[in-house]
Amino acid sequence: MDFSIIKDCIAGSTAGMIELETLLTAHPALAPESGGQGELEKVLALEAWLRERGITQLERFDAPDSRVESGIRPNLVATIPGADDSDPAAPRLWIMAHTDVVPVGELSLWNTDPWQVVEQDGRLYGRGVEDNQQGLVAGTFAALALVQNKVTPPHTVKLLFVADEEVGSEFGIKYLLAHHSLFRPNDLILIPDGGDETGSTIEVAEKNLLWLRIVVSGKQTHGSRPDQGINAALAGCDLALRLNGLESVFNQRDALFDPPCSTFQPTKKEANVPNINTIPGEDVFCMDCRILPCYSLGQVRAEVNRCVAEVEKKYGVTVSYTEPQAVESPATPADAPVARRLAEAVKAVSGVEARPIGIGGGTVGAYLRQAGYQAVVWSRMDETAHQPNEYTIIENLVHDSQVMAHMMLQE
After folding, report:
1. pLDDT reported for residue 327
2. Running DSSP on this structure, what letter comes out for residue 320?
């Protein structure tokens, strides 16, 4: 079929897109960490909506979670069989979105009810309308355009709606990778959960992530007698500077990223003593380290331990640390099939020449890449995620859906 027919079908589906956005936003899918009951109500509503419109090949993969009343965190897969569906070696195209959202934050900063979609000036406002319902709705309507026009794609299309992306993915993609064999090595995986205003950047790589919470233990004493104590704050300051200095040790540069270097930054500082005239016996601070993929976390840990040993010897303190986050992710090759097909689709729909980039932040793509699958992150969006008055642009919903449909129809 001529792609223009599918493209026009999607362009005429804005009322349906607004309807689905409205339905999804009305079911707050908050994690128990955020005081919610998870994603089940939202996923049940989505399942029913899909079945009513002809997407009936649905399968659930529920992760157990005793913290929510239902006891489960649902992950849903919708399948549109392709011409080569019976071939066990054929690649499938996955479009992966998450159903959970973040809390609204300070309600007084919202101009509208965050759980009720409001359309204004070509935008839809509400919590979750962009993060990640833009990607969810766009993928859904790309698939619907095929179903409604009775088009069988060359390769099977899988829409994956995962739980728990906002709070660690333990009950979402990490659960699926650990307990179910959903993916094939040659599958194409698109995650429409990040991008830019023009849709010109395809995220293929992430910096390795290492968060450190460091506890320096010395000996508390009166501020007038530092000779009788061991100043944990002084040792902590020295250690923070040494760790920051690792930026000159891991000093390679990669133009794929912005900034193009590894960063080791002290961030959070916890309270020690409540008064000025006491030398603290304990000092706690945190580091946010974003490391280019050419370095392993093992290499970084070795240098961290060297710095720790030097400070312990110099000041007579003891130092321990934990890693609240440690994620190591290989890159998807810039010329991987999924990246090439996406770039071709973006060019066909909007005329934009998309380019590969790396980012310093973390996405669920890292878990897929760790498991050996090639994934890319892309969308055309203003990046209003987690903000008050979050919005999605209706034109972007249409554009992203058309790009995804083009990918679905590629041989």
Report:
1. 87
2. E
